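re the bet — no i am not wrong, look at it urself. input seq straight from the record:
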Amino acid sequence: MVNIQSKVLIYESELNFLAQCILDYPETETGCDLFGFWSHSGHAVVQYVIGPGNNAKRTATLFHQDEDYLKSIGDELRKTHGLQHLGNFHSHHKLKLKKPSQHDSATVVKAMNSYYLNRFLLMIGNIVNENSTTINAFQYTRGKEQLYDHSGFVVLPGESPIRTVFDANCTSYLYQPKTKRANLVELVETTLEEHVYTKPDYPINYWLHTKKNREVLNGIMHKLNQQFNSVRANLDDRTGLVYLLFGTPEGKIIKVTFTEEFPTTAPVVASFDFEWFKYLPIKTYSWHSSGSLVLNTVNYIIELASQVDELKEECHE
């Protein structure tokens, strides 16, 4: 369930550039850096993409940009066009992971804290088949780094005017993709005027397969939003399960997963541990599936979320 809460405006030329870069390295990660500006609405506007430098380092699971290359071109883009560094892109090539890994998020959080950034744009690219790729965008916000938005693309037609001018003067040292043609598929698109929600195809035996139960989920989210901030529904690409993310007033991040056995068994409630950088399940208590499923689920989640902060206080006494 992709809930589009932020947007990325980007020219066709820059999306095509990213897609070509992905196919240049089908067995290892590669990366690029994104330049443009932030709109008044908080949306990213990507006007130019920098490819990997000659001294970039890459393996099947890691990519490190050539820092001298990035600084040189970045300084020139700021000087000649006033562009900002919005974030970066890297590929997960033929891996199935289409969203940030835990390591990706840790790296973004470190960068935001080191450079005092309020926002950061991360894009992930994947190879779908021999000549097709997909790209997903995610926006991080200071203070809510683990609740990143899955962004929708507003695709601007044609070539970026920055690329037209900048490439004409810097062709000698800019990265030029070896792949000349790449098909971009499965792009999550939106418009300037509205949000877009993409509805997944749930398995027939999953609780959310029926419309009635999706309305129950909306009721659960509505009630939780009265207690917490920014309750968001997401779909786990690996398991196909829906989970909720939200923050508590005390700054804890809670993840609620609706398993295949829900509502016969309780949802799995976990808290994000910043020391181990992963979600740790919270010890459960008695679960009641009879009666109002909305109220029972909300009360269960609130009770377990409050235990996180009680345990934290006990540890520091």
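see?? Confidence is low (pLDDT under 50) at residues 310-317. told u. also Helices lie at 12-24, 67-81, 102-115, 161-170, 211-227, 293-315. so pay up
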